Amino acid sequence: MATIPVSVDENPGAGEDGGKGHFIRVIVADTQAIFRAGLRKVFALEDDIRVVGQAETLAQTQSAVKKFSSDVVIFEAALAPNPVEAVADLIRQNPQMRIVVVTPGADEELTLELFRRGTHGIVSREVEPELLVDCLRQVAAGETWLENKAVHWVMEAYRNQNNRPAGARPKVQLTPKETLIVSCVTQGMKNKEIALRVGTTEQVVKNYLRKVYDKLGVADRLELALYCLNHHVVDNTKVPPLPTSAVNGNAKAAAAGAGASTSSSVSNSTPDPAANSPEKHS
């Protein structure tokens, strides 16, 4: 058994922007050598994922996180007697790093606690390799990954908060600007659109959201939206419209696209029977 984390990055620096884009740098922390080896083979087939370190104990994981620059840590829950606290400690020490926890199976209590303490992704031991790859990409992009059953558990947990006594969670006051930005988030807007509507920059929006996360004790946009839904944080908050310049820009782009479409279809005089059919949305 190895006593220190082992680097498996055969090309140091390949994770930087070197003309081929940014790699998702991953540390695989798991008690089973065969599982670690299997993940390395799976990720080796992906152009945008590189395993930079591995560990088989909690101590090795903590050492690997300090030693290797990584974007995501795949962390087996069995590595620690209390995986929730272990994950929370790793996140506190490395706020920019994102953690995907591998659980032995469906466990509602463990899933809710991990999610509440800031875990970015939770997958079961039997997850398909293709889904795990998708999970890594989504988590590395700043999103949350939960399996369908886990999403149901989280939704139910937040709905049930309405039945708690009013004093169960301290009342938090948001500033008008914070409330406005949060309202945009609950409507599914990305930072770029929020910045346009609020009249600021994407970076300022990100800064505001980090402050709101800390105030409300949430970890990401999904948890923020669920919290606001159940606590009526942004009820009756009116989101400002897009500025005229942005609207005109979109209109011009749409007109240009329509003009190109019209000119390309002049030679076709036969009406398309599907043209008036309602569009299907997946």
From TrEMBL:
UniProt keyword Transcription, yes or no: no
Residues covered by the Response regulatory domain: 25-140
Positions of region (Disordered): 238-282
Residue ranges occupied by any HTH luxR-type domain in the UniProt entry: 167-232
Keyword flag Phosphoprotein: yes
Compositional bias ranges of the Low complexity kind: 244-270
SMART domains for the chain: HTH_LUXR
Any single GO BP term: regulation of DNA-templated transcription
Organism this protein belongs to: Candidatus Sulfotelmatobacter kueseliae
Protein known as: Two component transcriptional regulator, LuxR family
InterPro entries: CheY-like_superfamily, NreC/VraR/RcsB-like_REC, Sig_transdc_resp-reg_C-effctor, Sig_transdc_resp-reg_receiver, Tscrpt_reg_LuxR_C, WalR-like
Keyword annotations from UniProtKB, A to Z: DNA-binding, Phosphoprotein
Pfam families associated with the record: GerE, Response_reg
Gene Ontology molecular-function annotations: DNA binding
